[in-house]
Write a structure and sequence with these properties.
Keywords: Membrane, Transmembrane, Transmembrane helix. InterPro entries: Cd-R_transporter. By secondary structure, the protein is an all-alpha fold. It has 7 helices and no strands. The relative contact order is 0.23.
């Protein structure tokens, strides 16, 4: 295995996924103390990232699954999930006194996390495609293996951030507000940067 490619892959992953740390920390905080929530966040992150890899690899070898004009519209996924999370937070604003578990007692679902990860990966796909196209099959396999290993590191870092006392208190107090705001903002940024709807 070429260590140069491993280093390049690690750097590329870090640069294209730094924004995922905040989103992961929010998802882990949302599921804090809820049975199986952390496993669902990790599973969702892997599902979403595997979808990103599948599209990027397919496009990199010439099978363009998503036309470039479609990628910006992936911003509708986190936007819709943010609106849904905001609506649920607004509806359950008084439920905390009656039912501490609230309406989403299980925390975030794997498919919810996967959808946000995939939608947030439009820029990843745009960066990965030319790299995969010029790396050959062996190089692409190394990139994919390094990326998948680093997803675990990212999940651990997100959970670490969500469990630090100061951060955990802030996320616990403001997470129900922050998650919808971050998801809606993420969706709007993806839509605007891609020029969706003529933005």
């Amino acid at each position: 295995m070429n260590l140069g490619i491993v280093g390049q892959a690690a750097g590329l992953f870090a640069v294209t996924n730094i924004d995922d740390l905040l989103v992961l920390a929010l998802f882990f905080a949302q599921g804090a103390g809820r049975r199986g929530a952390a496993a669902r966040v990790v599973a969702g992150q892997y599902l979403g990232f595997l979808a990103i890899l599948a599209v990027a690899v397919a496009a990199g070898v010439g099978a363009a699954l998503l036309p470039a004009a479609v990628v910006p519209y992936l911003g509708l996924l986190p936007l819709a999930l943010g609106v849904k999370a905001g609506w649920q937070a607004w509806r359950s604003r008084h439920d905390d006194e009656r039912d501490p578990a609230g309406p989403g007692a299980g925390g975030p679902g794997a498919l919810e996390v996967a959808a946000v990860t995939f939608a947030n990966g439009g820029d990843n796909i745009g960066v990965y495609v030319p790299v995969f196209a010029t790396s050959g099959h062996g190089g692409t396999a190394v990139y994919a293996a390094v990326f998948l290993a680093l997803v675990a590191v990212w999940c651990a870092a997100g959970r670490f951030l969500a469990t630090r006392p100061v951060i955990a208190r802030a996320l616990s107090r403001w997470g129900h507000v922050l998650l919808p705001v971050v998801l809606i903002g993420l969706g709007l940024v993806i839509l605007a940067e891609g020029g969706a709807f003529g933005l």
